[in-house]
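# nightly structure sweep
# worker-07 picked up a monomer target from the shared queue
# config: single-sequence mode, recycle default, output format = structure tokens
# input follows
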Amino acid sequence: MAQEIDADYEAHRKTWHNFVRLTIYTSIGVIVLLVLMALFLV
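# output follows
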């Protein structure tokens, strides 16, 4: 039972890590897009 909980926790931790990484990269991409739009469209 304890091993099952540990395995679930490890899977949850990996999923959370990937989600945070995706959120950071997406935020950086949006910021870059907004900067480029400000430079070329205004």
